[in-house]
Backbone:
């Protein structure tokens, strides 16, 4: 297609040999994003187009043309295609999408246990990737996707943690912490809500529009329960990590970014899961019933960092992040930022360009606009994989500690659970035959 040739020539001539996604930003003439001429608009595909994926597709339309949609549920496909104008090609198998040479960007909003496999294969196929959170399904996937991003560093990879673009809320809180306005950070509380209880649920036949076997993909096959599938899948450890990975991917991410624990080797050293309850009884880390929700519904997992800071990942607090320092404390969520340091504007003299630094030298803007800017200009997006997987490691460790109701030790340099072979066995997830990871 002429579009494809035009964009590739643009990138070659403008970036020369240095504009990799992991390299330093390259300066380009500024342009208004979303107002591209037809020859400069991206060709975009969506994989996983239920409610979240359909919303993402509507967002992506500002920056390009939706050429392909993929989902294992025909109803999702039809509804998404109607929402984006009805002109996209539709597929059940994501691999058919990745074979297309005209696709520039793949946006992924599948169930959690599919994220990394599709994302890495998209990078291998030369596509830029936007993937919804939580990106990873296990600690093993943390390592795999991080190494993939290092190898396929010409591709830009943005994670859908939209709180990272909230300048007057989360970024303001981070700036205050990093400038020491609150003093030494002693404790943080991430309120992420409780998962549901429910069941026993009845086994039934999956809808004719749904390929249940392909939906399960890499994980062990199980009889169909409506409550295991769309939307509610996240409350089953077979497919996700409950709210610890769902909301944790947002709030733990912000908390660790604030204290500088968003870099390799800076994770917690101890994770206390003794205060965690589940809707079903567990034995050796596994639920003893398979017909009811099994992710933790009542928990206060405490993570300790080497510098002395504690981080509570809890269902027992208001949704948001409480940050307590030796000089003051603040609370921030998606609606408000409060506390004496806010009321008295302790941060009023801080430099404004701090926000640009948090955006890695880019303008502060909507995270999806930042994603497309990085594709054009080079550089890491604000919601990059390398920092996101640090938060996800903490979330996965919280899940493991909660499943065993005990304290585990973590070596963040070696990325291994120390002195607990049973817990370490949960480092990865067994994958079904024909759904293994591609070798990097």
Residues:
């Amino acid at each position: 297609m002429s579009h494809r040739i035009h964009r590739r020539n643009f990138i070659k001539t403008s970036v020369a040999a240095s504009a990799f996604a992991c390299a330093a930003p390259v300066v380009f003439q500024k342009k208004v994003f979303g107002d591209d001429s037809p020859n400069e608009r991206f060709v975009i595909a969506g994989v996983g187009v239920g409610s979240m994926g359909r919303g993402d597709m509507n967002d992506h339309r500002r920056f390009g043309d939706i050429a392909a949609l993929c989902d294992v549920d025909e109803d999702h496909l039809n509804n998404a295609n109607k929402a984006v104008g009805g002109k996209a090609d539709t597929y059940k198998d994501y691999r058919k999408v990745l074979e297309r040479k005209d696709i520039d960007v793949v946006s992924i909003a599948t169930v959690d246990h599919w994220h990394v496999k599709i994302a890495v294969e998209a990078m291998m196929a030369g596509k830029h990737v936007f993937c919804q959170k939580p990106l990873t399904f296990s600690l093993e996937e943390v390592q795999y996707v991080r190494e993939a991003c290092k190898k396929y560093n010409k591709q830009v990879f943005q994670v859908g943690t939209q709180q990272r673009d909230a300048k007057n809320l989360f970024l303001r809180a981070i700036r205050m912490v990093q400038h020491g306005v609150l003093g030494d950070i002693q404790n943080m509380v991430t309120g992420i809500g409780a998962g549901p209880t429910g069941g026993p649920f009845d086994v039934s036949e999956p809808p004719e529009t749904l390929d249940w076997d392909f939906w399960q993909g890499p994980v062990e096959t199980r009889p169909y329960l409506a409550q295991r599938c769309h939307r509610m899948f996240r409350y089953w450890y077979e497919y996700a990590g409950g709210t610890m990975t769902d909301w944790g991917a947002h709030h733990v991410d912000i908390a660790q970014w604030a204290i500088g624990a968003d870099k390799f080797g800076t994770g917690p050293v101890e994770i206390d899961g003794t205060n965690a309850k589940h809707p079903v009884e567990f034995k050796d880390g596994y639920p003893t019933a398979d017909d009811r929700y099994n992710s933790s519904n009542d928990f206060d997992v405490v993570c300790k960092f080497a510098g002395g800071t504690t981080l509570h990942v809890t269902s027992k607090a208001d949704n948001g992040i409480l940050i307590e320092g030796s000089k003051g404390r603040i609370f921030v969520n998606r609606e408000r930022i409060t506390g004496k340091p806010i009321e008295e504007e302790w941060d009023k003299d801080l430099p404004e360009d701090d926000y640009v630094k948090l955006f890695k030298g880019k303008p502060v803007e909507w995270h999806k606009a930042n994603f497309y800017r990085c594709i054009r200009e080079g550089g890491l997006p604000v919601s990059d994989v390398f920092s996101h997987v640090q938060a996800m490691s903490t979330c996965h460790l919280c899940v493991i500690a909660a499943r065993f109701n005990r304290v585990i030790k973590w070596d963040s340099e070696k990325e291994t659970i120390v002195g607990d072979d049973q817990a370490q066995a949960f480092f990865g997830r067994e994958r079904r035959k024909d759904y293994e990871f591609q070798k990097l």
Q: What stands out?
A: The first helix runs from residue 2 to 15.
